[in-house]
Amino acid sequence: MRAIAYNEVVTRVAELCKKAAYELPSDVHAALESAHGSENAPLGRSILRHCLDNAAIASRERMPICQDTGFAVYFVEMGAEVFIEGGLLADAVAEGTARGYTDGYLRKSIVADPLFDRKNTRDNTPPIVHLSIVPGDRLRLILAPKGGGSENMSAVAMLKPADGQQGVIDFIVETVVKAGGNPCPPTIVGVGIGGTFEMVTLLAKRALLRKVGEPNPDKRYAALEREILDRINASGVGPQGLGGTTTAFAVHINTYPCHIASLPVAVNLNCHAARHAEVVM
Questions:
Q1: Averaged over 226-233, what is the pLDDT?
Q2: CATH 3.30.360 residue ranges in the chain?
Q3: Whole-angstrom Cα distance, residue 54 to residue 217?
């Protein structure tokens, strides 16, 4: 067994919070550059240029890319031969989140109760932690801060198997087009197909972690991703919903086996500032 100190996890998580807020991942930056070069609408091209300039300023000045620094969502892969010495992993992630958002002057966006007592927790906790136990003696933490504008445009549908491929395509495209400018397009469209009601939404969110434009390894789903992306970009929604040919950078589909009576589909959108950062300990 390998011990990882509680305080080390806290420190690394705090660093992740600031890195994710300040630095646009290289694949997302490349997607923005490509979109700027190919966008046909003058206003859309201007918007994409501003997005690139904004990312450069954020990285240089160590300031948040967006004022909505998001709900702190972690995907954690914990080796079966690892244990946290001095405390619980969940507590370390929460403490690191509070420290990172406070020291980094990142906006605190979490309320303690969703309905009756919507008072700000003042340190952006609690975070959401999706934990997987994997072989080995390493701890991998991926932070994907999720802003409210894009998250609010998420949707899930429990389709009938008879709805088939066309039903899936129509639901995804309609969800993105209906969202319009709310999720700050160009977006990355995370899609889950299969599993159960709760599993399909997690599939969709995990799909947002894939390198932008990297196709599904199954050629059938890769072709489906391309078809849906073409339909979305032909919708005319465009950058920030103001018209153009770049409504989405990519469509990423994750799948899971499902019940014979079910065809769950979920869509989770990420804005053009698709922030994530990771560390392996």
A1: 98
A2: 2-19+66-145
A3: 33
